[in-house]
Amino acid sequence: MESMKKGEFIWAYLVHFGVNSWKDIPLETQDPSLPEKWLTRCCADHVRFDEPSWRRISAALAKAGCNLLIIDLAEIVRYPSHPELAVKGSWSVEKLRAELARLRGMGFEVIPKMNFSACHDSWLKEYGRMLSTEKYYSVCEDLIRDAAEIFDHPQFFHLGYDEETAGHQRNHLLSICRQGDLWWHDFLWFVKVTERAGCRPWIWSDYIWNHKDEFLNRMPKSVLQSNWYYSESFETKDRNGKERTYVAAYEWLDKAGFDQVPTGSNFTCDTNFAGTVRFCDAHCRKDLVKGYMMAPWTRTFAIHEQKSMEAVAQMASVISAR
Questions:
Q1: I need a labelling partner for 205 at 20 to 30 A (CA). Which of 115, 183, 246, 304 fits?
Q2: What is the spatial distance between Cα 181 and Cα 196, in angstroms, rounded to a whole number?
């Protein structure tokens, strides 16, 4: 099978090969209402990836019509430039390339994701505590170059960059975030480095929720946007007439002329992905919506496989009906 062609409409699925993208949150601070199987410390000194489960999920994705996989790398691979970031069981470059070849043979385009948000960079180990220093920039540039080469310089490279706020880090053992001009300095630096590697930067767009004018004025149009929203209602205003920024952001980005891949999920409800497609099909210009992404936020563990398969089924239903 051939991989998707450049410019083809995107049906993307986010999969976590590595999972050390969340700070080491003490177990006692995690939400006790979640099922016990979800209450796991986010960081570990070893790879946690169920290969047989992933093969079943990827086969289902191919049948569903998914054509692009966003692979969150984190600790899964031993980076040539920085092997010190590896954990027990991190894959060799050769093993990762073999998996990419398998997935391309199934018809998928595969692109890398490395989350450089200060909220989701535990995989960087000590370098995540060197934020905005010369050493930090040097290491991050090395890693982007490594990933671009491993993936054969794909057309897209997802940089993450979500949830870098004090509120999102309130239970982290170390809380740190960039603000104002420093946020923009670092972000635009990442854009340049990614483009030098031959890839189009792709990010989560949630910074716009609290910085609308700033975002629309300073964000380069070259950056592919993924606003995300995971609940059931797509009303753009609440009962008091206040704008619901999470939903309204799709329209903000559209009116400003940004390319988008709106993102839905089955994380909190089973109707969100279909709702996302309906809303954005109705409210955003077709030439600017480059596709849609399903982000189930499941780890690639056997105990999460059912939730992942439910996400795939929801994608299949939307794709077949469109």
A1: 304
A2: 22
